[in-house]
Structures
1.
Amino acid sequence: MIKRVIAAVLGVMCLSSCAVGGGTGTDIETKEYETDYSSVKAEIIELSGLEDEEFEEKFNDGVEDSIDSELVAFDTAAAEIADELKMGNKCVFQTSWDVKYNKNDFLSLVEERYVYMGGAHGETAWLARNVDIAASKEIKLDDLFTDSGYVNTLNRLITEQVEENKDEYAGLWEKPEIKDSNHTDFYIEDGSLVIFYQPYDLSYYARGFVEFHLPLKELKGYMKEEYARLI
């Protein structure tokens, strides 16, 4: 009989950026359980202290629903391949959160999600959430800029970084450019707009994530006035 070893929601943990310097409160709850064939440790982030309580609830519910949906799919798939796993091997589902930016009524969060379903290695992905707290909305890359002309500037800055750091960016399969996926695959950190590419997007899996830190000061002329506060 398959035995569920742990099924618990652990206590709330406050991330290092939790409501520091006027930032938004960010708390973590962890869902952790284990079966004979799988292991789960899923962090779920919650915002707190927002003036717009309706948006706060909607955001928090959306994050939890997304992870719960992924867990249902994972549990089903793990059960189906349980007999195929090598002795002592288990399927794994893990999520963790990194608060990249939390001030000026703006929040950049990156969820790292790792799933192992047997084989040589698991799959890791980053899921970014950029939140304009002042406007009570999640934003995409386009929302930061006045018009689509910014794309050419971003591509130029990325190309310059590749040429100036050839060793760091050696082994890329193709020239990195802004694609549809990058309209969500970005975050703000230390005065930069960081565009990232998932493993396998531009290079082999072991190369990991490919990132480009683009100074916001060089993009100021293209940015909407309300986002000058990020510079």
2.
Amino acid sequence: MKLTKPITQFVLALAGSAFALSAYSQTILKFSHTDQQQGARQAAAQIFAKKVEEYTQGRYKVQVFCCSQLGNDPKNIEQLALGGIDFTVSATGSYAGQLPTLNLTMMPFIIDSYAQGWKFYDESKWLKAQFDKAPAKGFRFLATWEAGFRNMTTRDPLNGPDDAKGKKLRTFPNEMMRWQLEAMGFGIQIMPLPEVYLAIQQGAVSGQENPIDTIASNKFYEVAPHVTLTNHVYSPIPMAISEKTWQRLSAADQKAVQRAAIEVAPFQRNMIKDNDEKLLAEMASKGAKINRKPNTEAFRKAVEPVYAKAREKYGADVDAVLAEAAAVRKAVK
């Protein structure tokens, strides 16, 4: 039967529409994190999203959810393992709920500079062995991004352990962090990041500890104006993908996603490092009081029992980490 011209045009239009839908269909992948929109984590996630879309020729689009919209760090990692979200980025200590040995990366004062931190996280054989355990827990690490050194913001001046006594400090749920802050003399309060500003403002806690970028983007200095540069923990943020998502990707798309994550790392690392002084100056201009020279030796002495406590629980892993960190400090000043 010969088709009339209008019917022929209609059939061709349907075929064209089907082709167009096929050509431009995308799979949406969710990237959840707890940073604010103006933070370095958000900037890196947005660049990662663009690279994934480009490197997969539009087959995948990454939708970024900042500001704890889909959950705090523990919830994000839980959802990552279950396949509820596809990507997250968080401190190594946050992943310790699934990989307990990663608590050891939070031991105090083992890294002294960004250059040392980058070398340790890029070259540590011990750390690679821990990261290799992640797929069995439901996620895998793609690259190590940056958060920076953790510092204190408090309502009152803080210069050493004597000033910490009787003060309640907010931190995130991490065993090693709790041990060292308690050793310094603080009382500890665990709470989600979005609740911290109001908790300080209302006096429920005396302050909190976080990297400079996080302090600035959350404006904690407004309610806890004493910013003390303790640099007690170096805190990079490994970026991870759900293992369920990874296994659904073709080999080519796995390569594309891994490439995007790795390519973002230098940008994100340098953004944090280069912005520290700029952000401190901005906070100072808005009333923050920056203590650049607290009694670091007193803090170091106060946390000495933490290493022995860690050995009691984690055994030889502690000395493996300390040995590698010591070698890095010797090689990189």
3.
Amino acid sequence: MSQGTFVGRQPIVDREQRVVAYELLFRSSAEAKVADFDEVGRAAVRVMVNTFAALGMEAVLGRARGFFNVTREVFLSESIEALPRDRVVFEILEDVEPTEDVQARCRELHDAGFTLALDDWVVDDPRESLLPWASVVKVDLPAVPRKELRKLARSLRAEGVQILAEKVETAEEFDACHKLGFDFFQGYFFAKPIVLEGADMDATKTMLVKLLQQISAGVETTTIVETFKQDAKLGLNLLRIVNTAGRAARVRLDTIEAAVRHLGLQQLARWVAILLYAQGQEADLRSPLLATAAHRGRLMELVVGHGAGRGEDGSDPERAFLVGMLSLADALLGRPIEGLVTELRLSAEVERALTHHEGDLGRLLSMAIAVEAGDVAKFEPELERRDLDFASLQALDNAAYAWVHGLTEPS
């Protein structure tokens, strides 16, 4: 495994839970010698510049902005000025002292049109003198007592900055911060299921689960078309998504029957799963669950396709995609994953992957989740097993996000 730097992403959502930005997470190979963080920071800037130049803004971020941490040395260096000022937000870390040169740099970058954020803000934060040049303050939720949160939020709003709640782990925390007027939210609250035993799904979700059941059972195409016809808007949303996703559709599909016959059952399962996350009737394609699940599925598909095309137990790219997509279905539907896989009558291989992360697909799912979290220690061993290095993983991850952005921001 060669040394390198990996750039991951964590979604930042607005008050409607739509993805509006990503925090860019820079990680070094576990094999790399322990270096000071400033060298890692400079390497991260180089990776960003090269990535943006090679792929362009749309592939890296879509229409979202990119937040990334800067140490004192990186913040004071000229290298960061090579980044696009309208797309990047510099996060000033909590251990950066607000010295005169840091204040002067804040003023300089602010006046040049760059956006600054103050990371991991707490009560009585020593960086208060930097607030005049900050546009966003990221409040470190676990470090702020709940009884102090209201006062802190009020004082920051009075400063005219937007406030972001980070490390939001539960829906309850999201609701509390939402009521306090927070503008943005970051964390894994949207990916953690709130299981409601016996909870009823709405009609559209019920229809989509029925479609997945039919596809899994290999029913006739005509039966699936008839199911779609029971919900005309659902069928129109399928056509819209398939025709715009990735901005690279080769065939324009005009009818449900044409779409179903052109895609085939395996591909159709992909688009039905996407519709499920897009909430069916409203088809809100900017939801964090969809962005995370679609990226997870696409990355898994690309990793399998990068090898011989099939995993050691016969897993193919399309099946890998479906596992990634369905891995968050419990969070979406509020029902245990064990019950869902039984209800959908999925194959034994897919069921083992989803319920216990076992088998080739299960290990691949664990790897994709670790990539999302930037957890090198967890995903690096799987890279070695699949003969991938950091550069190859980065290319696949970027390609997965480019596909997701084409899906969630159809042109």
